[in-house]
Design the sequence.
């Protein structure tokens, strides 16, 4: 801009404004095309053989997570004719829902009797009801207790299997219809759990909160801008740029047909506050320059010259921080990183293309043009700078103690995730999940694929089935699995039915005749659909499917390791191969990658930022000096998370990356100004003080605005979002303290500027 004359600037400014206006209208249109993508399967590990295996596995059988559990309570006991009839009517009603494949409850379950012919009898026969007899019979069947009837007899469970891979629209319709039908019967208490209702609840809440946080962020930004710049000008001019950046980013997503995913629901809030940094620094420097000159054009040139390069670097480094999320093997987080990285660059582009033009046509608030000094900030920054000079040693000692304590706390962080742990204990959905988890064998799906390696044997080989029987005993007695789908269990139920349902015959048969009868019955055309849920079409793979309590992936991973060790002893001389699979297992595996991925991404980001600063200053000491104040806040929030027990999971994984990407901005602005003053021939001390006085106000203001914006997230219903807000506020506050205290001390102690050509 130094070589651009005012006449040329005025001429091209009009063209720029018109072009920006047209471009913004274009992106407004594209933004209307943006869709929503809340596919939870996107959280499977990318480029992973276990993911590939499961995708093929479920083609052979069915999805393991397309079910709903409905718990219906009656405090006086469920074995009441009127209550059971209502449950039966409700069960029949549910089958009318279009997306429902099957409905199972205690009222439509039948006991099988295999004699000369296969016969069945309902467990609850309303034409011949004997509650005492029927309840005793039901409680003698282990596959019914805690599957269809609670052990305490005070609730029943209705099991719904719905169509695979329901869209959000169909999922919402299913839940709405189910709820409407449930309301007709006026049950004492009804609880619903399952992926579909969890998904609907999360998505609806996220959408509501996204709109709320956008509105609150906008109000907060307006408030802070008004306080900082004390004028309508100081509110409207920055807001034009910030809102334009938001429109451009969302419009760009619409143009490339990239929908908003679960993680991207926080995008508006993050984009709002991130965009403020560039704007505040440029506006603050422009107003300071305007106090010393009558000419807005000269003030614009000064502001752009002094903060332009620093702001460019902050945008690059912040975007690098976001782009580093591509190392996390979770697609929604990868997309979030790329989108936010592009958003930061868009914000920079619009800030330095739009604001100088607006400054020229709308020079600034009256109090600035009247040359009123801002004594408030000057006095306090001068006082703080003097204190820092006097307390260098204490600052280093305190910093070292904070770092050591933070590292100790950081080592305490654990990676863990439960299905509903992002919800508070008071949330009705969490209470429903917890109840069904406790009383009905769990809501977390489990799948074990059993492959017969010797194709000449098949799944009906007796030795293999007896081996798998011992495996299932381990799964139920040690692992805590409630088996829902299993050939061995089906055979044992069938064998028991041959002996009038006597519990002692719930075992694999010993007689050849019984084996033949059972095989013929289970593989008949009548049982084909059920059989194919247990055995694949080649008869070389069987499925053991069920549910376990939601113990968290940390506990389950340890259980899986013990299970694998056990399975190595049950291979039937190498004839059997086992593989744990399923939706929950893949999410657990992703979490095992999480820590490594984050460390790798952050390490790359820190290295790139350090190299950029080292190259600009041509100094290895600056390379280290620039990194230390920004590693401190990362260690600090990691330490806090470790001490208070905030676990590392998908919902909290982005905290460190966002914190580093934003925190480094203030460091770069101070060092950029420091470098500029050195190039003017200033001494190290003078250059540092001048940089401190000039950038200090903007650093404090941006931090306050950013912290306030992120603080809004504490009002979220989701604990992950809550901790995101809390930890980012802490990180940015600590980063500000480090930049205002530790950074100047490190410069004075470890950096000796080289002689360079003066800036003219």
Sequence:
């Amino acid at each position: 801009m130094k070589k651009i004359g005012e006449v040329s600037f005025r001429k091209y400014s009009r063209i720029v404004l018109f072009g920006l206006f047209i471009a913004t209208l274009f992106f407004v249109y594209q933004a209307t095309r943006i869709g929503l993508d809340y596919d939870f399967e996107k959280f499977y590990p990318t480029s992973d053989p276990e993911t590939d295996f499961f995708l093929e596995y479920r083609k052979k059988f069915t999805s393991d997570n397309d079910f709903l559990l409905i718990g219906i309570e009656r405090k006086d006991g469920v074995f009441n004719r009127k209550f059971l009839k209502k449950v039966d009517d409700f069960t029949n009603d549910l089958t009318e829902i279009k997306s429902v494949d099957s409905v199972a409850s205690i009222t439509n379950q039948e006991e099988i009797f295999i004699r000369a012919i296969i016969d069945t009898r309902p467990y609850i026969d309303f034409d011949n009801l004997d509650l005492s007899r029927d309840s005793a019979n039901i409680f003698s069947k282990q596959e019914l207790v805690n599957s269809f009837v609670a052990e305490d007899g005070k609730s029943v469970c209705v099991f719904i299997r719905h169509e695979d891979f329901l869209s959000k629209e169909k999922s919402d319709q299913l839940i709405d219809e189910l709820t409407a039908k449930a309301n007709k019967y006026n049950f004492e208490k009804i609880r619903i759990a399952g992926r579909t209702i969890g998904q609907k609840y999360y998505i609806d809440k996220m959408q509501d909160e996204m709109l709320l946080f956008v509105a609150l962020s906008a109000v907060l930004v307006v408030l802070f801008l008004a306080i900082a710049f004390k004028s309508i000008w100081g509110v409207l001019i920055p807001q034009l740029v910030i809102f334009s950046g938001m429109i451009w980013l969302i419009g760009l997503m619409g143009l490339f047909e990239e929908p908003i995913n679960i993680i991207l629901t926080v995008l508006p809030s993050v984009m709002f506050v991130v965009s403020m940094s560039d704007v505040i620094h440029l506006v603050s420097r422009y107003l300071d320059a305007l106090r010393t000159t009558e000419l807005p054009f000269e003030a614009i040139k000064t502001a752009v010259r002094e903060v332009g390069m620093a702001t460019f670097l902050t945008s690059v480094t912040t975007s690098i921080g976001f782009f580093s999320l591509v190392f996390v093997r979770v697609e929604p987080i990868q997309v979030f990183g790329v989108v936010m990285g592009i958003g930061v660059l868009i914000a920079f582009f619009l800030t330095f293309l739009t604001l100088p033009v607006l400054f020229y046509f709308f020079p600034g608030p009256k109090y600035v043009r009247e040359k009123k000094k801002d004594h408030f900030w000057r006095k306090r920054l001068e006082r703080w700078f003097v204190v820092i000079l006097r307390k260098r040693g204490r600052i280093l000692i305190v910093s070292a103690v904070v770092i050591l304590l933070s590292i100790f706390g950081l080592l305490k962080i654990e990676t863990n995730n439960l299905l509903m742990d992002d919800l508070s204990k008071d949330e009705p959905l969490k209470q429903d999940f917890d109840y069904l988890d406790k009383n009905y064998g769990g809501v977390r799906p489990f799948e074990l694929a059993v492959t017969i390696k010797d194709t000449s044997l098949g799944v009906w080989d007796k030795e293999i089935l007896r081996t798998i029987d011992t495996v299932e005993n381990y799964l139920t007695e040690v692992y805590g699995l409630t088996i829902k789908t299993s050939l061995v269990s089906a055979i044992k139920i069938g064998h028991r039915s041959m002996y009038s349902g006597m519990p002692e015959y719930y075992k694999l048969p010993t007689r050849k005749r019984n084996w033949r009868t059972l095989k013929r019955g289970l593989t008949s055309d009548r049982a084909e659909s059920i059989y194919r849920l247990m055995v694949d079409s080649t008869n070389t793979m069987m499925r053991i499917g069920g549910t376990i309590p939601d113990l968290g992936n940390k506990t389950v991973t340890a259980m899986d390791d013990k299970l694998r060790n056990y399975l190595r002893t049950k291979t039937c001389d190498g004839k059997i191969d086992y593989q744990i699979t399923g939706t929950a297992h893949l999410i657990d595996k992703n979490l095992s990658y999480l820590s490594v991925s984050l460390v790798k991404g952050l390490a790359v980001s820190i290295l790139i930022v350090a190299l950029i600063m080292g190259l600009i200053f041509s100094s290895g000491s600056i390379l280290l000096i620039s990194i230390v104040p920004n590693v401190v806040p990362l260690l600090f929030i990691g330490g806090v998370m470790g001490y208070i027990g905030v676990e590392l999971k998908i919902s909290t994984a982005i905290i460190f990356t966002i914190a580093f990407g934003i925190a480094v901005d203030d460091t770069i602005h101070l060092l950029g100004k420091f470098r500029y003053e050195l190039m003017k021939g200033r001494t190290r001390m003078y250059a540092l003080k001048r940089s401190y006085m000039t950038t200090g106000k903007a650093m404090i203001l941006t931090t306050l605005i950013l912290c306030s914006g992120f603080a809004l997230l504490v009002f979220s219903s989701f604990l992950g979002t809550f901790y995101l807000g809390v930890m980012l506020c802490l990180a940015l506050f600590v980063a500000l303290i480090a930049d205002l205290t530790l950074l100047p001390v490190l410069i004075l102690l470890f950096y000796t500027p080289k002689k360079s050509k003066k800036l003219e």
Summary: Residues 328 and 596 are 8 Å apart (CA to CA). The chain has a mean pLDDT of 85. The chain has three domains: 6-41+230-411+588-750, 64-200, 439-584. DSSP finds 24 helices and ten strands in the chain.
